[in-house]
């Protein structure tokens, strides 16, 4: 696959869901890729936001190319928040202390990233906010002054399930997250990766985080 093929897949999923073309935006996940590969496989096709999951790697790349649109999609550690200066959107806030650390760093930067709250996906996975804690965390994160734009979720690995069951589980998860965002008045929905983005777009994803498929 390549970026144009992924984009075509996103456009097809939008059309099938009766959504306007372009309402789901591709975030090119570039972790582990050097800037040459990013230029060749991503930026040669247009100006896409770049999603990085490791703070040091993000720091090093974004220092060389601060002009690009950088998103952070990984686990946020207190001592590494300082590396996120060039980030405009953090997809992966899962605790109020992370937002507080970001807001504090942002004072030194003179600009603050917007954030999404990462939801737990109901599987044996340690990351993400439990559904019942979401309204409280949302309140606390807003109190830091950061702009909470939406929700993010990472679907569990369901590759061992028979396809119909896998698709039903993905649809249920993505639809549930979309409903929670809607109920909270949040407009951005970051969901969908290489293996499941058509289901995420069908459920209303506005940001689709695809990595592997862009570089193979
Ligand atoms: C790596 C990663 C992706 C992209 O996954 P691919 O399977 O490479 O498309 C998306 N979201 C997060 C949080 C990731 O860490």
Q: Can you tell me about this structure?
A:
This protein has a single domain (3-215), classed as TIM Barrel (Alpha-Beta Barrel). It is 40% helix and 16% strand. It has helices at residues 3-16, 35-41, 55-64, 96-109, 134-143, 163-183, 197-203, 212-215; strands at 25-29, 50-52, 70-72, 87-93, 114-118, 148-152, 188-190, 207-210. It has an eight-stranded parallel sheet. The radius of gyration is 17 Å and the shape is globular. The site of pyridoxal-5'-phosphate has 13 residues, from strand 8 and helix 8.
User: In which order are the strands of the major sheet placed?
Assistant: 7-6-5-4-3-2-1-8
Q: Give start-end ranges of low-pLDDT stretches.
A: none
Counted beta strands: 8
* Number of separate structural domains: 1
| Overall CATH architecture | Alpha-Beta Barrel
Distance between the termini: 6 Å
Q: What is the highest CATH level, the class? A: Alpha Beta
Name the bound molecules. pyridoxal-5'-phosphate
Strand content: 15-25%
How large, in whole angstroms, is the Cα Rg?
A: 17 Å
The overall pLDDT, averaged over residues, is 97
DSSP helix count? 8
What is the makeup of the main sheet?
8 strands, parallel
Shape summary: globular
How would you summarize the topology of this molecule?
Blueprint: H1 3-16, E1 25-29, H2 35-41, E2 50-52, H3 55-64, E3 70-72, E4 87-93, H4 96-109, E5 114-118, H5 134-143, E6 148-152, H6 163-183, E7 188-190, H7 197-203, E8 207-210, H8 212-215
Parallel strand pairs: 1-2, 1-8, 2-3, 3-4, 4-5, 5-6, 6-7
The chain binds pyridoxal-5'-phosphate.
Pyridoxal-5'-phosphate (PLP) is lined by residues 29, 31, 53, 73, 154, 193-195, 209-213.
Modified residues (N6-(pyridoxal phosphate)lysine): 31
Keywords: Pyridoxal phosphate
Family: Belongs to the pyridoxal phosphate-binding protein YggS/PROSC family.
């Amino acid at each position: 696959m390549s970026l144009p093929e992924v984009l075509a897949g996103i456009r097809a999923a939008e059309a099938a869901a009766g959504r306007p073309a372009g309402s789901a935006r591709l975030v090119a996940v570039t972790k582990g890729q050097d800037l040459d590969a990013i230029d060749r496989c991503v930026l040669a096709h247009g100006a896409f936001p770049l999603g990085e999951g490791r703070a040091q790697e993000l720091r090093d790349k974004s220092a060389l190319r601060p002009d690009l649109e950088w998103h952070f999609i990984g686990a946020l550690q207190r001592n590494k928040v300082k590396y996120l200066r060039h980030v405009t959107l953090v997809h992966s806030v899962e605790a109020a202390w992370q937002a507080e650390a970001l807001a504090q760093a942002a004072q030194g930067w003179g600009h603050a990233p917007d954030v999404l709250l990462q939801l737990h996906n109901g599987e044996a996975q340690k990351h993400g906010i439990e559904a019942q804690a979401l309204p409280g965390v949302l309140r606390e994160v807003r109190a830091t002054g950061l702009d909470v734009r939406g929700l993010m979720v990472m679907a569990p690995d369901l590759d061992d399930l028979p396809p119909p069951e896998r698709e039903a589980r993905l649809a249920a998860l993505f639809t549930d997250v979309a409903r929670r965002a809607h109920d909270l008045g949040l407009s951005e929905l970051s969901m969908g990766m290489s293996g499941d983005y058509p289901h995420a777009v069908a459920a209303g994803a506005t940001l689709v985080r695809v990595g592997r498929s862009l570089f193979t």
